[in-house]
Write a structure and sequence with these properties.
Layout: E1 10-15, H1 22-28, H2 31-43, E2 47-52, E3 68-71, H3 85-98, E4 102-105, H4 107-115, E5 119-122, E6 128-136, E7 150-157, E8 159-163, E9 169-173, E10 181-184, E11 188-191, H5 199-211, H6 218-229, H7 237-253
Parallel strand pairs: 1-2, 1-3, 3-4, 4-11
Antiparallel strand pairs: 5-8, 6-7, 6-9, 9-10, 10-11
Helix pairs in contact: 2-7, 3-4, 5-6
Keywords: Glutamine amidotransferase, Transferase
Pfam family, one: GATase
Protein name: GMP synthase-like glutamine amidotransferase
């Protein structure tokens, strides 16, 4: 019997739907690099990663080219209907149909819901910025005793899943974002907020969007930055990463 040390690492495909502004990427890494760091640490060497620049039209040849898939955020909305989005949505349907485990974050959460029959819109509630807290539905085996009544992650979004796809379970939500996390049986799950965004990255991104891009309201942004600076803030990034790793590995175990 193979020991864990002798089992080859699983290859995980990171579907990169965007890249940060160059100044942010130079200091904090790309979205795909942040995914690899977060989920790689949670997998403790059992995963290795391949990146696909789906925003540039690069898609895997087949749903099982990798053992599992991670889908990043993006500045774009699914309603932008950019040329790479429809092929990506079709690929996601193939992945789910093949039963290959998949996890999406932010835009990844949204386009997965869109691909499977849900609705994504620019929310009338406005921007969600900084740390957000969501009521959590627990009791799933891949949580493995890691549950809690609340989930806290950094958010940067004004789009939301407003209607969940048929058959999707709401895993977490709030008054601001009722569909903050969705579960699709034992093959896919997704989160609106960003486990890969730590305090420093979130602070740099909000500052950039406010000062360089001019897309964020200064008062709203200031409140989010104050919340990020609170020394008592505890984000659940590592907890979510553990869930995703367990979810994938339980799927592989059958």
């Amino acid at each position: 019997m193979d020991t864990p040390a002798l089992i080859a690492p699983r290859r995980i495909g990171i579907l990169e739907a965007d890249r940060p502004a160059p100044a942010i990427a130079a200091r904090y890494g790309s979205y795909a690099e942040r995914f690899a760091a977060l989920f790689g640490a949670a997998a403790d060497g059992r995963w290795r990663f391949r990146q696909y620049a789906v925003y540039a039209g690069e898609l895997p040849a087949s749903a099982d080219e990798c053992a599992g898939w991670l889908l990043t955020g993006s500045r774009h909305g699914v309603y932008d209907a950019l040329p790479w989005m429809a092929p990506l949505a079709q690929f996601l349907r193939r992945v789910v149909g093949a039963g290959v485990p998949l996890a999406g974050i932010c835009f990844g959460h949204q386009i997965l819901a869109h691909a499977l029959g849900g609705t994504v819109e620019k929310s009338s509630r406005g921007w969600g910025l900084g740390p957000h807290r969501y009521a959590l539905r627990d009791g799933y085996p891949w949580m493995d005793g890691d549950e809690g009544g609340q989930l806290c992650l950094n958010a940067v979004h004004q789009d939301q899943v407003t209607v969940a796809p048929p058959g999707a379970e709401v895993l977490a939500g709030s008054d601001f974002c009722p569909h903050a996390a969705l579960l699709y049986g034992d093959c896919a799950l997704s989160f609106q907020a960003h486990p890969e965004f730590d305090r420093a990255f979130e602070t740099a991104l909000l500052t950039y969007l406010r000062d360089e891009r001019g897309v964020l309201d200064p008062t709203h942004t200031a409140a989010a930055l104050d919340a990020l600076a609170d020394p008592a803030l505890q984000l659940d990034s590592a907890r979510v990463a553990r869930w995703v790793v367990r979810f994938f590995e339980q799927r592989w175990a059958g």
